[in-house]
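Suppose a classmate hands you a notebook page containing two proteins, each written out with its sequence and a corresponding row of structure tokens. How would you begin to make sense of it? This section walks through that situation. The first entry is reproduced here exactly as it would appear on such a page.
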Amino acid sequence: MVALPAMLFGSVRDSMKAPPAEPTGADVYLDTSGTDPNPEAMEGFKERFRDSNITPTPGAMFTATVIGEDFATKLFSADQFGDPNAPVEDVFDEKELAKIPEIEGMTLAQAKRWLERQATVKASDLAERARLLELIENPDVRKAAEKA
């Protein structure tokens, strides 16, 4: 049996007591409460994206809905005209980045991937909510829950 130095165990114990780090970047999820778009708005986004040669991906649609169509158009068309590895700060000014500070320090490609992930999380949340609503047997209670 090998004896391990006591200081090794001390550092392990100390690290276990440390508070967890604040989540940043890819670990942060946007608060999208109250941002579910109506179908007409979504169709409008899709049409205008296609007119701008932007594929209306879930991330592009999510960005247009939560942050704004102009921001989404600028981000999702930026790599057509420049370097996808350019920092977002090269494309967006401080006022625009204030709308979504989570992407500061990312490249355009990273920001797009992060927003695609956000869209996936949002879609899975909506699917789970719909599934749970279906479990409510009383139609009045279900209707009230749908509005909440």
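The notebook's second entry, a different protein, reads as follows.
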Amino acid sequence: MWDKFVNAFVAFQAIGIVVSIIYRWPLTAIPIVGLIFWFKWEDGRKERDLKRRGFHVEYVSPGRLRDGADDCEFVYYTLEGEVCFEGKAVRRGSILKVPSANLWEVKAPSWAAGHLELILDRICRAYPHTQLDRENPINIV
């Protein structure tokens, strides 16, 4: 109960600070409103991509993944499900570890079987600085 009160009080103070800044300096409203619209636009990006194109590609950075210092992940979403690929972040872009074709056919979801090249092509188009590592096949996440 007390936590809800404290959170509401802090939120009320934050809103008061923003309103007083906008009241005193009206031109600051433009970037604040712009940031709010940008954040809301990015929130709905995945849903818009799934409706419009039927797929969405997301890059999970090393800071969010917390596996290793340079580990990253690519998540390919469709209306049927999702598939994750491991990767390594390098100075310019990242390296996507590609599973072997045999392993893909056995362990991939049924909707993705036979579509490995299409999925990899879409990931590389979404993130152009991505290199494919086909020499060291890995397990599917």
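A careful reader of the second entry would note: Helices lie at 2-24, 29-43, 45-52, 62-65, 101-107, 116-126.
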